[in-house]
Amino acid sequence: MRRHHRCVIESDDTSESGGSDSDIDTAMRCISCREEYLPRDAGTCKECYEEAGETEEELKREIEDLKAKVSFLRLDHVVVHAGNSRSFTDVVLIASHDDGAAAAPPIPAHKSVLVSRSPVFKAMLENEMEESRSGTIKISDVSYDALRTFVCYLYTAEACLDEQMACDLLVMSEKYQVKHLKSYCERVLVTKLTWDNALMSYAFAHQHNAKQLLDAALSQITGNMDKLAKREEYMELVEKDPRLIVEIYEAYLSKQVNTAAGGTSTS
Amino acid sequence: MRRHHRCVIESDDTSESGGSDSDIDTAMRCISCREEYLPRDAGTCKECYEEAGETEEELKREIEDLKAKVSFLRLDHVVVHAGNSRSFTDVVLIASHDDGAAAAPPIPAHKSVLVSRSPVFKAMLENEMEESRSGTIKISDVSYDALRTFVCYLYTAEACLDEQMACDLLVMSEKYQVKHLKSYCERVLVTKLTWDNALMSYAFAHQHNAKQLLDAALSQITGNMDKLAKREEYMELVEKDPRLIVEIYEAYLSKQVNTAAGGTSTS
Known about the structure:
Two copies of one chain form a homodimer. By secondary structure, the first copy, chain A, is mainly alpha-helical.
């Protein structure tokens, strides 16, 4: 049973003027978009509208404060000057390949920064291991560009990543346990998800414990189950790592069960 | 004018559909605070209410992202461990007093951090001056505690300041041109402004080019002009630096003129 709620406005006789009874018949004008609307499309009262505006102002001020803090804490200068004698660096990183290609130029950095950003560098540099004594950290299986972008991120918390670079840095951030960067790479890769790369992304996410990316890829895949078995990557995965395929079917089934349960509860 | 608000609840036997003409007679219930209101107190339409909610969610997400960035960029670890051999520091700061008191313990730090936070340290350390060669920076006229808080702020962009410490750090941040800290100190001092400290704060702000604090103190003072001349600090300032008192009167006059102009335009 629905109920209508009808209100009757009565003016005091003593009133001077202004709000007559005709107020109630007036369609309202939204303070925000200035359009007229009817009671059934009503949102907030004036007081809540004003409060919401204040909240928004406060949030924006907080954002400005935080942006200023980020800009204060970034070590841009150091990156720009890294490599010249005035940057006080005490370690270099070198991208090394096993294939014996010519060594890439060393990338200078500060032990204090590496140590504060990565527990792996911390263990390496604080425990007087080879890298700490020599002041040289060799990073294998990574390109010079990827390593430079990685180091730059450690100083600035910023990077502009294409899909390939996001994959490379996700691998590095997993290896060196730089959680903040890993999460950023995952978010970049989630925005690049399509049906065409969903299976590869899913397998990649699995391999590198990238939960955000895994969930997004799985959701993309389970929404296209009819096309799944026709894909080439599907066949490859069945051969190479069938457990991953099993997990897809499990996720699909659990989604179906949940949907059915949801349907029941709202009907 | 007072209005009586009488509500009648009617059950509706027939229709399930909402928007009949009778809608217009219905008092609305605010989606946000759940209170009933009348058309003259209407705020937004439903669509704008929902949009505002989304905006708020987005702003909150942005705040979370920025907080994570700040926490990534802070160099807490370094501060905690500064002083032990594993923190890779390459410079110490010493609070020195001209009065020949016993020297305070040195505070270890990183040239790279000092240089990136302060143009004064940058010039000092990059130009092979005495401080750079010796690895020791003497800071005069400052307590050990203030210097330690100052250095800590350079690493973390955070400090918990009482009024005295905010004054001390404002002076240091002015001297070493650490704008972010100076602005923070000013904001702390603005929150501590009262009529009792307004004149001292005003003179202090003047001395250290603290515009935010100056404006706030001036506004406090010009709102209490009747009591101004009776204050002890007033007499002292008239003796010591009468220009400051002149500026107060000028600000008061300009405020009066503006108020009058505002009054005229709205009358």
